[in-house]
């Protein structure tokens, strides 16, 4: 470290005075950096005095400040750098506190169940993405009339996984709910077995695949429960024979004579509701979905949408909900860009935005949410406004016939382009509508944040356009999710 580098001096001083959490105020005079400390015992005096830039240390009992003598000129450069570090760490700490609070609030039985259901589908996302991109490429080739000899092979490659997705859901469900994975897969395989067409339930013939992933999920969860019951009650000498037999038999019959029928009705209702939502709701439905998705993420309720997406993809080949929900990420990107432009003097926050923005453009919004918008408070709300306008744009065109769907779960932002499908594969109209929605979300999120989201906020340590109160080193608490 050299004495001429104010940032290095500030970075060296901060941990020696107990870190950002121990600093309650920062000021300076002609020669001294004056710090208000919450706990004087956390200061490592000897190490502070040993720093090359430090000329001495003074205790001012009258004002209760800890004063580090740096000398004229030096202190004027070190003090702003030190304050930037203090507030940047404070902002990061607030983001981590928000995450910790959300984890605690999400530990309810209902939300834990949603997390377990999400854990069933998340491992399937790579296959969904790969097969989805191949399906999109196949649709594009068919539309263009190219490579007719290859497209049947591509169709088989893309469709094989989806034809057996119920089995994979069963394997993951059994693993997640404490059963033997292969038994979960065996029971879930009943759902897609062609022979179920010979089974009659409530006067109707079952059809292969009826109930889809929801039926497989329910069947494998039941199998895991039956297996665990058998492990407790079946004699050890007979366990290897009776437990798997009873598990597959009881769960399999329950699947055929109840779960497939019930799950099929639910799956059909989901598909019908999604179609009617966009056909009748249009821009309003899109605005509600796009605007509320970030609060849903904060509440942990977005995980309930994963099996709905999977059901729509299985039924229709794509989910019409994901492109609309992806607009929330566009609003978040626009809001972050506005923060970057407005708070020009806040180098620490701008550095955070620069590092997180590429991920945000590709649909990974957590770094921007927890590192920027939520700790600052109001920009989180204006990001939701951007998501609402982007969702309204996509929803409006959906009502007018420009359906935009996604053939896989997971990616959003720019990463969703290769997975778009509007019923006729990847078309120019589908791409244009989705791109228009993203642009609308970016622009609206930026404008709302620039004009309304940063009043009274000067960032984490810079001298912005508005005066920051001297009594606070960090912004106030963020609004409650959804407010």
Structure in words:
Keywords: Cell membrane, Kinase, Membrane, Phosphotransferase system, Sugar transport, Transferase, Transmembrane, Transmembrane helix, Transport. Residues 7-92 form the PTS EIIB type-1 domain. It is found in: Cell membrane. The chain has 483 residues and is of the alpha+beta class. Among the domains are: 6-90, Glucose permease domain IIB (Gyrase A, domain 2, 2-Layer Sandwich), CATH 3.30.1360.60; 119-267, no CATH class. It is 65% helix and 6% strand. The protein has 17 helices and 8 strands. It has helices at 6-16, 45-50, 74-105, 109-121, 125-144, 151-163, 165-176, 181-192, 212-233, 236-299, 305-316, 321-325, 327-342, 347-361, 366-376, 378-399, 428-453; strands spanning 23-28, 32-37, 56-60, 65-69, 200-201, 204-205, 405-406, 420-421. It has a 4-stranded antiparallel sheet with strand order 1-2-4-3. Strands 5-6 form a two-stranded antiparallel ribbon. A two-stranded antiparallel ribbon has the order 7-8. Strand 5 and strand 6 (204-205) form a beta hairpin. The longest helix is centred in the middle third of the chain and has 64 residues, at 236-299. The radius of gyration is 28 Å and the shape is globular. Mean pLDDT is 84; it is low at 460-483.
